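DM from R.C. (forwarded with permission)

"hey, sorry to bug you on a friday — could you get me a structure for this? deadline for the figure draft is monday and I only need the backbone to look sensible"
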Amino acid sequence: MNKIERDIIEQVKNSYIIHECGQNSSPIDFNLFNIFFLNNVETIHSLFIAELLRPNGRHKQGNLFLELFLKQLKINDFEITKEIIVETEHYAGQIDLNYDEGGRIDIVIYNTKGQAIFIENKIYAGDQKKQLIRYYNYSKKFINPRLYYLTLFGTSPSEYSIKSENYKLEINCNDFIIISYHKEILIWLETCINQSTDNSVKETIKQYLNTVKKLTNQTLNDKMKNEIKELLVTNIDYFDSFESIRFITDEIKSELTVELINELNNRIRPEHRIIKLKSNGINIHPEFMFDEDGFALVFWGYDNDVKILKNGNCEEYEMIFKQIHHFHHTYKFSGAPISWINFREPLIADNKFICDHYNNSENKEKYYQRILVEAEEYINEVLNILKMN
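My reply, with the result:
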């Protein structure tokens, strides 16, 4: 890092400290999404957005929020018919062996005319294999379909999502539209607040808006923002340096996420890595994961070490997890039964967690032990159910 980059970081830090100390804790932190660690759980974001988009939603605002959403995305040809369906985790079919079809799409809006809008929602999770290819192929069954790729800052999808194994381009930028929480969703939420006629609805959306602002680093007060702007625009070297370093935080989060997940999976006890069922060839593999559902311990159903069950026989698997009330319902993913439970704490709670753990082996070790103790509780619960059956 050169001197200019050090200078700009130091000056931005000083400005931040001055304004943070002046206002102590902000009311923006007193927020149900933050208090219950829901701000990083992608399914929560999809559920909330979908509820606003439903004309018959509990907000009792009719088509208002949907109309504002269509206007924000400049969609002029989607007809708001008498019945509008808005679904989350929309089932697009079983994922086939070539990964050309199937999956679950985060948000789908469709009308009785056969028109549809598809939204793949990404907060921190990575892309799945040929994910947008599969959703694009599915979308072609509808009239004038639109496929949106929603991320915090308008990041492009990875090649893993839009190309096949031989790197032949299967879909291009004309086949999907990139939108962001930082811009489109934030502006839409602000418009919803301004035009809503119900105060309780306004306040609920405000809480979610504040969560979006926090996730997209837009919680700075006006005075601090103006100081940073003035610093940048008065010095071209500062401006260029800031451009080169501002995305490093995302890279740090990504690296730490991969490291934590890999290490936790390596530390699963050998005797717990394969939990055999009574059924011939059927067993369960526990695995730590971080994806659209947050930070979870996932239990995959396998058939002779193949994740796709050849015979689709997972009755014994389903019977086990139905007896454990806090596990998510079992469903089939690529033909394999899967059940999971989210952890009591997020994988990466906040920026302080990153600074405390990124290069600190002692703090990482304490974190691993905490999570592994909780994971052992869940695995032992599964083992106890097996003993009773």
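R.C.: lifesaver. Residues 361-388 form the longest helix (28 residues).
me: no worries. Residues 132 and 161 are 5 Å apart (CA to CA).
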